[in-house]
Amino acid sequence: MKPGMEDILDNQKKAFETWKDWSDQWMKNFPGMTPPSSGADFFVPWMDVQRKWMDETMKMGNQKSSLENAPKQWKEWMEVQTQMSDKWMEFYRKQAQQMGDVPGAFNPGKTFFPEMGMKPWQNWMEESNKWIRQNILDKIPANMKPHFSNFTAIYDEMGKYWEPIQRMIQFGTYSKETTDQFFGPDAYRRVVSLFLGFKPVDNTTKLVEDVNTFFEDFIGGMQKTTPGTHEFMNSWISFFRDWGRQTGHPGLQAVAEVTHLVDKGINSFYHVAGPSEELAMAKLLKDIQFTYTAFLLKSSEMQHVLLDAGQFALPDTLKDFYDEFQKTQKMPNYTEFFNRYANNLEDYILEVLESDEYSKLQADVSKVGITVKSKMDELIELAFNDFPFLMKSFADEVAQENKSLRRKVRDLENRLYAIESTILGGSAVPKEEASKEVNSEAKTTTRKAVKK
Amino acid sequence: MAEQQTPSFADQLLEQVDTATEAIRNISDINNVEIATARRETVWEDGKVKLYHFHREGASKTKTPVLMVYALVNRWEMMDLQPNRSFVRKMLSEGMDVYMLDWGYASRLDRYKTLEDYILGDIGDSVDFIRRKHGLPSVNLLGVCQGGTFSVIYSALFPEKIKNLVTLVTPVDFDTEEGLLFKWAKDMDVDAVVDGFGGVVPGEFLNTGFDMLKPMNKTRKYLSLPDTLKEKDKLLNFLRMEKWVADSPDQAGEAYRQFIKEFYKKNLLIQGKFELGGRMVHLKDITMPVLTIFAKEDHIVPPCTTKPLHEKVGSKDKQLMEFPGGHIGVFVGGRSQDLLTPAVARWYAERDK
Description:
heterodimer, A: 452 residues, mainly alpha, 4 domains, disordered N terminus, disordered C terminus, B: 353 residues, Rossmann fold, 17 helices
């Protein structure tokens, strides 16, 4: 859900309240600490500024719309937040130094209070990040949105594993077996599929069953409009059901073989049946079903090849960082880790993409995928054959004529060019303009040029 | 030591808060993202194809104008992405008179449009228009990527109409497996693709292929967003590039089929076996001065596909120029602005006799 400004403000308010509670607790537990004037030195001015800002903003009516439509106010508000966070952090640092503790990523016991104090700011950050993401999405072109959404999904998904990943880097537990224990096949498949932008095929058998269901529904609908094919359709449905039962094993080869057998069986039916529009549609439907199944199988095979290729990318990345940690004792941040993982994964995947096998497989996937689409187009044209609708094939005829006419114009232009060249003695700039000239200045110039 | 080097939780959070604050501020400030804003007028058009003439302050330093021909894939706006990263504007500021051919957006009406229509028709008509307008026997041609291949073919067929030829990252030798596109195209059943798509190949289909050349490019791009968001200029650059990448026109099927079959699969051009409009195209017939520019780290059109032009043309005055960057960097990178474009303009000017 898109986080609104109210959410951000609410969180910010909660942040402050929790901070105040935490400060009070801090003071009780560490009575020797320098009190920050009960927070008054920065809390009161901050609240005053904010209250004033809120009053101004509310005068504009609806809070959300006024915030979103008033960049000036919005900027002022952000300035106030920044000042507050700077001051607050400075205060926190001073207190931490007096405790003799510089908090880091690996001393959670000592950093309990600071972490507790920071939690609300983390919440604020999370809400802000959601707002930022949503607004980036709003500003990028529609066909780029899925890519960005994919990216954020992967980034978040991997982020769930960041805590154990840090431990693995720290302790050098990067073997594939160990990695698989916390980052299992499902998570891996989900992440890699998002990286490469394809819908993961979890279970080929299930997918084939789903396809069968889809076609049965489709055929069911067709029976209502073409009762003449009723008998044939029923026998066909039983084919699919048998096929579904026989493909209980997830092995792709079995599915492929059964598909082939069913295909042969149905073909023999067409050989004895006479031609008709209904039959043509039924045949097309059959073609679509088998081509689509072929697409699923090929697509699944392609995904497996890519998934196999990248399975060592994570262990390799962990090892890279473990080696670096041993030398420098420096832990990467999540973004650095994510970036390295993506790069390592790409190296493995590129090895596959560069292979002859992948090239052929990809060509097959494209071919069958596009064939499904074209057969669907044919089916639609056939289904609406008797209706007075303009179909794509009409456009093709117009396109063909358009192209012929354009070529004829060009041929005529060339002939004219040859004649004028002869008459004008091979003038440098001879050809008469056949196409439309947009501005009059150009036309004048053209005439001048021709006279030369 | 370890504690000091590891960024503290507080520092990390504070940095994030600062970044988020800047990001929200910058995003809120940006309402409209524009590309290709250099002033221009349409001086000729035929169907969807347009010829633009860019406005320039003052007279040009050269008498021969330059016609730029971009690829059918993606849009010419890359040549004028933003004011301070614009090949077009830089050429203008270097004193050149610049025209640009805009192929428009192919639709089903263009499904039978062939390479002959694009090269002999659209490029030929544009060249003739400019020649007439300026009263010149020949014009300068600058071809980009696939548009460069078209320009090479046109120059070979009509050398008398082209005064100087510059090719930017232009493939002419397709017999390589160095670039994945060149490898994959050989296995592609282009008939199934073109016919299956009903004669118009969707731009999205092509984009999928381009994305797979470097599968993590998008991830890297979005991963660097926190830094990008901190600066408004960087954020605008990012959004402009997103806009350009997203604008991927569909391809006229017959021309696409021809291009894949005759170039990627059969590599006819470099062998002197490519025929267009009933005439054989021989690269040795290119006799005007030629500047061949390739990008050293180009993973879309690798140098091995572009450099052979330098050897094959019949020109006595020819130059091979290496650009230290990738395919897109040639048009919009800092080095393009500072070094490459001025060098191209200088090269034209020196031959503007």
